[in-house]
Amino acid sequence: MSAMSQTIRPDTAPPNSVRINWELKAVLPVAFVLVNGLLLFLVATVSLRDPERHAVLILAGGGAVAICAVLILALAYLIQRPMVELQEKIAQVGRGDLNVKVSFADRNDEIGDLGRNFNLMVEQLQSNREEIERLHRTQMSRAEHLSTLGELATGLAHEIRNPLAGISGVVEIIARDLPANSPARAVVKDVRLEIAQINRIITDLLETARPRLPHARRGDLNTTVEHSVMLARQQALSKPITIDFQRNANLPQVEHDSDQIHQVLLNLLLNAIQAINGSGFIKVGIEEIGDRVAITVADTGRGIAAEHLPNIFKPFYTTKGNGTGLGLSLAKRIVEEHQGTIEVTSVPGKGTSMAVYLPLVSPKAPAAAS
């Protein structure tokens, strides 16, 4: 269980210290007055030479004894009993029982304030525990849902990929037989692009459904980034978009899975290209920050609305009409499996910046789930 189930030790004291209970501290002055009163009473009863003086001493001693007795009883009722009850309730909370309240919370004094604060604290703990349990149930439900979707996606991907390969082969045969000046060649080109798009979607589905752990090796991260930029430039050839990248000559070797990080960066670059309407600029940077390396992809596109930012890394969430919502989700998972993080900042109408942070030395990869 959580730390709440641990035994609470309110009587724990520093080593080599003498513990004096508050009752003893409170009673000592009263006991001192009581002893003096008893001494006065004894002196008055032993010596009978001055009856009037002795009567005063007897009265004073008896009064002191009575006052002390009343004070002790009042302390026991007003303070001792609430403290004992509070200790019992704290012990119950330590055992995990949060349905407890102290009975002295309605008192209009400091002890009552203590009781009210304790009851409020327990209510907040109970509310927090219920919220944690609710979130846990929600996450478990989502995990089961995603697991089912993963199995379904895997099956569909295999069922689609086989006939898709046949269609692609037929299209290639038709394209070979078409005359060079045939207008149908433009249609064939569009069909090829659509087949490539379907194939890319299937690949994302399979990567999401059957994730593999990264095989990190020390290598030149500049080369991985440069490869992604080169492919992105090919995608942007027909658009007035400039993609700028300068190698970082001082960057040390970085442990990473070059194929997976290439997949992440290419996804970010393609998103940046799609976010730019008309002419635009994409700047790719790479720098060492302490024991991490940061790769940034900043574009001058339309940006992302603030209400969409918390959801862009969720599976199947997309703001694009033709998107699947798997690219950024897959990118985030890959980066996190590299023990890194991915962050986004965006200003609608001005552009978006994606930053991928990776450790220079990859920690030991977690064991694959059975």
Could you please describe the fold and organization of this structure?
- The longest helix has 68 residues, at 110-177.
- The protein contains 7 helices and 7 strands.
- The protein has a 5-stranded mixed sheet with strand order 2-4-5-7-6. A two-stranded antiparallel ribbon has the order 1-3.
- With 370 residues, the chain is an alpha+beta fold.
- It has 2 domains: 3-12 and 19-130; 217-359, 2-Layer Sandwich (Heat Shock Protein 90).
- The two termini are 24 Å apart.
- Strand 4 (280-289) and strand 5 (292-299) form a beta hairpin.
Describe, in short, the structure shown:
The protein has 370 residues and is an alpha+beta fold.
Number of self-contained structural domains: 2
Number of strands: 7
Outline the low-pLDDT stretches: 1-14, 365-370
The CATH topology of the largest domain corresponds to Heat Shock Protein 90
Shape: elongated
Mean pLDDT figure: 77
N-to-C CA distance: 24 Å
Please identify the oligomeric state.
single chain
Number of helices: 7
List the strand order in the largest sheet.
2-4-5-7-6
SS strand fraction: 5-15%
- Gyration radius (Cα, Å) is 38 Å
Derived from helix and strand composition plus strand pairing, the structural class reads alpha+beta
Helix content: 55-70%
Instruction: Specify the biggest β-sheet.
Output: 5 strands, mixed
CATH architectural group of the largest domain: 2-Layer Sandwich
Order of helices and strands: HHHHEHEEHEEHEE
The CATH class of the largest domain, by name, is Alpha Beta
